[in-house]
């Protein structure tokens, strides 16, 4: 009698930093075979996973050699042509696009579902979904004074976030409205508008948040940002806590509450 053969484990290529971290939190780190150079958490465990370039400059030849069974991409962070190319040699391409903290429970379930038969994955996903929902409820239960906020992600030119981005919607959970009052659509550069620096609404901004990523703002940028919005309080903030989703959503909501409470 022939013994039953064990199923072949999946081989996951993840090109989304937040989701690489999520995969490890779900207990799937052992089947992650490729990541980008920006997928740096959880350290040091992720250091064992081969890098295949950046989120927008993927080395497809190297990735093909790693023979992934699944590839995970994101509409904001990866290029459409990359996803199209992946479909030529990866059996399953998983496309993600969480636009708000409220989307994260569904994202966790989306990532866990193809691997739910692996030990512990479904249980970890369920626990994380419950934690995110609990933190969302706790955040919405806290009354906060509305504030007009400029969240800067780049300089020369100054760049900020549209109101339909994850960052803006996370800040909206504590009553903070990002400026300008624009939406950027489902994808593209309009989601991260640039500023001339002489827009009239800059005078009404109450808070300027200088993110630690993708541009590494430091103390030397406080004065130029203050000149941009003379009436505002200017602060350096941890961009990972406010822009990474999945595992970070619970901490991101707590951090936003801390920022709002210190106004």
What are the main properties of this structure?
alpha/beta, Rossmann fold, 2 domains, 4-stranded parallel β-sheet, 8 strands, globular
Description:
- The mean pLDDT is 95.
- The N and C termini lie far apart (72 Å).
- The chain is an alpha/beta fold.
- Helix 4 packs antiparallel against helix 5 and helix 5 runs parallel beside helix 9.
- The protein has two domains: 127 residues, Rossmann fold (3-Layer(aba) Sandwich), CATH 3.40.50.1980; 115 residues, Rossmann fold (3-Layer(aba) Sandwich).
- Helix 6 links the parallel strand 5 and strand 6.
- It contains nine helices and eight strands.
Which SSEs are present, and which pair or pack?
Layout: E1 12-14, H1 17-25, E2 32-34, H2 60-65, E3 70-74, H3 80-86, E4 92-96, H4 104-112, H5 121-140, E5 147-152, H6 166-172, E6 176-178, E7 207-211, H7 222-228, E8 233-237, H8 239-243, H9 249-261
Parallel strand pairs: 1-2, 1-3, 3-4, 5-6, 5-7, 7-8
């Amino acid at each position: 009698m022939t013994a039953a053969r064990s199923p072949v484990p999946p081989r996951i290529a993840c090109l989304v930093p937040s989701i690489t971290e999520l995969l490890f939190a779900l207990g799937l780190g052992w089947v992650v075979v490729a990541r980008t150079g920006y997928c740096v958490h959880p350290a040091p465990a992720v250091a064992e996973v081969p890098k295949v370039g950046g989120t927008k400059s993927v080395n497809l030849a190297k990735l093909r050699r790693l023979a992934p069974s699944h590839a995970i991409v994101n509409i904001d962070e990866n290029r459409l042509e990359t996803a199209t190319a992946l479909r030529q040699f990866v059996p399953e391409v998983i496309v993600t696009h969480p636009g708000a903290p409220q989307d994260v429970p569904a994202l966790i379930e989306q990532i866990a579902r193809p691997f739910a038969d692996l030990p512990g994955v479904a249980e970890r996903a369920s626990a994380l979904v419950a934690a995110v929902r609990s933190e969302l409820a706790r955040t919405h239960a806290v009354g906060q004074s509305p504030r007009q906020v400029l969240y800067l992600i780049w300089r020369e030119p100054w760049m900020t976030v549209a109101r339909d981005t994850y960052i803006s919607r996370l800040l909206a959970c504590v009553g903070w409205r990002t400026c300008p009052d624009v939406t950027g659509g489902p994808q593209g550069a309009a989601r991260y508008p640039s500023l001339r620096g002489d827009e009239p609404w800059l005078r009404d901004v109450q808070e300027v948040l200088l993110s630690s990523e993708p541009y590494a703002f430091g103390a030397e940028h406080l004065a130029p940002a203050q000149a941009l919005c003379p009436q505002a309080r200017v602060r350096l903030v941890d961009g990972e806590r406010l822009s990474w989703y999945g595992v970070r959503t619970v901490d991101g909501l707590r951090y936003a509450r801390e920022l709002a409470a210190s106004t």
